[in-house]
Amino acid sequence: MGLFNTFNDIFLKMNWLYNAVFDVLERLFQLDPESTIFGILHFFIYDTIKIFILLSVLIFIVSYIQSYFPPERTTKILGKFKGITGNILGALLGTITPFCSCSSIPIFIGFTRAGLPLGVTFSFLISSPLVDLASFLILMSFLGPQIAIAYVVVGLILAVLGGFIIDKAKMESYLQDYVIEMRATGDIDGLVVLEMNTKDRMKFSFDQVKDIVKRVWLYVLIGVGIGSAIHNVIPEDVIGFVLGGNNPFNVLLASVVGIPMYADIFGTIPIAEALLGKGVGIGTVLAFMMSVTALSLPSMVMLSKVVKKKLLITFIAIVSIGIIIIGYLFNILEIIL
Amino acid sequence: MNIKVLGSGCPSCIKLEKYVKIAVEQLELEATVEKVTDMKDILGYGVMSTPALVIDGKVVSTGKVLSPKDIIKLIG
Questions:
Q1: Torsions phi, psi of B6, nearest 5?
Q2: Which domains are delineated in chain B?
Q3: How near does any CA of chain A get to the CA of B30, in Å?
Q4: CB contact under 8 A, A106 and B42
Q5: Cα–Cα distance measured from residue A305 to residue A287, given in angstroms and rounded to the nearest whole number
Q6: Inter-chain residue contact B49 with A194, CB threshold 8 Å
Q7: Which listed residue (B13, B66, B71, B75) is catalytic?
Q8: What is each CA distance from B63 to A130, A209, A330, B16, B59, in whole angstroms?
Q9: Which end of chain B has fewer CB within 10 Å, C or N?
């Protein structure tokens, strides 16, 4: 554990950066470390730099791994499995397949066309925005290994069970008509997986970093801004009253607030960090993070192009209920342990 | 030569089409450049990650925006 902690402190938590920002603000700008403005600036600058460094390095590494699993290959792999194994594999592959909400339609139709069960497709779709390797490492840096592992495990379970339930509900007829028409008409072997060499993979990873940073930087800044406000300005009593352990609706509230918000997990982490710092329960914070990432308006709009209302509502209901259960469960566990 | 850009209208698909046209002009090639936007047709090529590039019926690139230089290498 000693070696891991050293690694975590230097590369993931970046204590050196924390101290450097502190020194610059105190010595160079002569700010009083006890003042609110110092707290706001310190949180904002430190978190912003840290997230962007981690984001770039981690996305590069993760994209390199992802380059081995383009959606076409994922479809081929998933085509070999049935039942709950398919759901588990769908959820796992959802964590490493390059994916943004703009590619969800081709993936959805591609899976359906290849004849994959609807439940496997949904396991993939739930886990894809919710859990990925980069977010796992970044969670580790900000919130520690216990929370990171807990987040990934419950995220995967939610994806597997959500897909499983949708499968059992036999909702194939609630796909949009043009999707139903294409169902299982495609030949899995005909999917093209092009060869890539190391140079291609490097370039792919570099492009991914550029794309993702371009896509999320604003959300990260907004997230850090909100986190900084929670951390330094909003009184602990107010947050405790709304989201603390004495309000039985804390998890429910956190989930509902999170649904219309659209942010990458990277934008939610500084908010989560600040909320935890104010003594909000871990379950409440997890529920907030999950509902922001798994249920967002843009992804629902996308999804409504391939499924009919009833299936869309079922999907939203299953994921919301799952998130709320996870939230309360973790709050109870936190008290017991 | 027949070049097809596969993509349902996302910003990167538009970019790829632009680069293809630049490459064709630079090489002064006799080539037709077409866009395939229908998901069914795109999947018919065995492609799920767009934008993709098809040259004379063969898929040569998927899921990325090639630079004009890369395209010239492929069609030149």
A1: -95, 130
A2: 2-75 (3.40.30.10)
A3: 26
A4: yes
A5: 27
A6: no
A7: B13
A8: 22, 15, 39, 11, 11
A9: C
Query: Could you tell me the pTM of the whole model?
Result: 0.83
Q: Please answer yes or no on whether B43 and A110 come within 8 Å at the CB atom.
A: yes
Query: So what's the ipTM on this one?
Result: 0.85
The angle, 0 to 180 degrees and rounded to 10, between the axes of the packed helices A145-168 and A282-294 is 50
Token pair belonging to A268: 């939610």
- Amino acid A100 reads C
Residue B49, min C-alpha distance to chain A (Å): 7
Q: Is the pLDDT of residue A162 over 90?
A: yes
pLDDT tens, position by position, A236-245: 888 888 888 8
In the prediction, which pLDDT does A100 show? 58
- The verdict on a CB contact (< 8 Å) between A98 and B63 is yes
* Order of strands, sheet of B2-6, starting from the edge strand that comes earlier in the sequence: B32-36, B2-6, B52-55, B58-61
Q: Smallest Cα–Cα separation from A191: which of A99, A25, A49, A73?
A: A73
Which residues are bridge partners to B32 per DSSP?
Answer: B2
How many separate domains does chain A show?
A: 1
What is the nearest CA distance from A194 to chain B, expressed in angstroms?
A: 7
Contact B72, B26 (CB under 8 A): yes
Whether residue A234 lies inside any domain: the answer is: yes
Residue A14 domain-assigned (yes or no): no
Residue A1, pLDDT above cutoff 60: no
pLDDT in tens, A227-264: 888 888 888 888 888 888 888 899 999 988 887 776 67
A76, A78, A192: which to substitute to probe chain B, counting the most B Cβ within 10 Å?
A192
- Asked if A70 and B62 count as a contact pair (C-beta separation under 8 A), the reply is yes
Question: Which residues of chain A are within 8 Å of residue B19 when distances are taken between CB atoms?
Answer: none
Structure tokens at B18: 């632009």
Phi-psi region of A145 (alpha: psi -120 to 50; beta: other; left: phi over 0): alpha
